[in-house]
Amino acid sequence: MHVACRDLTPSPSQLKNDTFLINGMQYLPPPPDPLQKPPAWVPEYTELGKWFLETSDIFLDSCQAKQKRWRRKFGVVTARDSLQQYIETQKLIKIKSFNIASDGSSARIVFDYRHLDLMHNPTLRLREEFSKPGSEYVSIGIMLWSEIEEDTPRVVSTQGEIFLNEYNQIKDLLVNGMFLYLSYGSFEEYGWVRGRETEFINAIKEILKESISEAQMVMELNEKLELDSLWAEHIVFNRNYWVDSLREEK
Fold first, then answer.
1. Is 100 domain-assigned?
2. How far, in Å, CA of 98 to CA of 130, rounded?
3. Residue 64's domain spans which residues?
4. Is residue 143 part of a domain?
5. Overall domain count for the chain
6. 187 and 232 together in one domain
7. What is the pLDDT of residues 48-107, one digit of tens each?
C-alpha cells in the first residue's frame, strides 16, 4: 500500500528590500494593521524649500503692492509695464518666466526652482508628477485686478434706477424668448421654457417629490430639464419653497 506524504519542509526565509519573509509571510518589520488608516503625508522641506516658501510670499506681496500703487497713479498700461520690469530686474528670487494679462488683471509666474529640490520626502506620485515636462518648476498665478477697487469711488444707484435696470433686464430676456425667473435671496435664475411654463414647473416639483438623494435630484434637474448644475443645486437647496407650494396644493 502506498501512502501519499506531503512535504512539510518549510520554505526558506527570504530578505527582500529590507523586509524579512518566512514562508512568504512578512515577519519583519511587522506588517501594518489593515484596519488602521495610513498616516497622512506631511511634506518635509529642504533648507532651500523653507527659504523659498518664506521669500516667495514676501515677493508676491511686493508685486501686488507695487502694481496697486502704480496702477492708481499711472494707469493700467504703465502699471503693467512697470511690474514686468520690476520682476525681470529684481534680485530677490529667481524667475524662469513671467506673463501678465493685457488688462493687468492677473499674472503667471514660473519660478526657477524645481519642486523636487524643495522637498525631502516627495511621494512616488509627486515624483512622477513633478518629473513631467512643464511641471518641474514651481509656478503660481496672482490676481491683480481688484487691488485698487477699494480706492475707486463708487456710484450708488437710487432705488428708482435699480428698479428700472431690473425691469429693462427682464424685458430684454422676455423679448428673446426667456420666461422663467426665480429668485432666492441674492441668487437668480432664468429658464428657456416660454410657452410651457406650467409643464416645466410641475416637472421640477415632481423631481423634488421623489425619494432620492439631493445629488440625484440635481442630476435629474440637469439631465431631464437641462437646468444648469448650479441652478439645479440652488433649487434643491431651496426646495422647502417648492415643498410648501406642494402642501398648499394638497
1. yes
2. 20
3. 47-149
4. yes
5. 2
6. yes
7. 999 999 999 899 988 888 888 888 888 888 888 899 999 999 988 999 999 888 777 788
Among the three residues 102, 130, 149, which one is the final residue of a domain in this structure? Answer: 149
Q: What is the pLDDT of residues 104-153, one digit of tens each?
A: 778 889 999 999 999 999 888 888 889 988 889 999 888 876 544 555 55
- Angle (deg, nearest 10), helices 197-209 and 239-249: 100
Q: Is residue 24 part of a domain?
A: no
Closest C-alpha among 67, 101, 68, 107 to residue 86: 67
Distances (CA, A) of 110 to 62, 98, 137, 139, 151: 16, 6, 7, 4, 30
Say if 105 falls within a structural domain: yes
Closest residue by Cα to residue 195 from 216, 184, 180, 207: 180
Q: What tens digit of pLDDT does each residue of 211-245 get?
A: 888 889 988 888 887 777 777 887 888 777 776 65
Residues 54 and 87 in one domain: yes
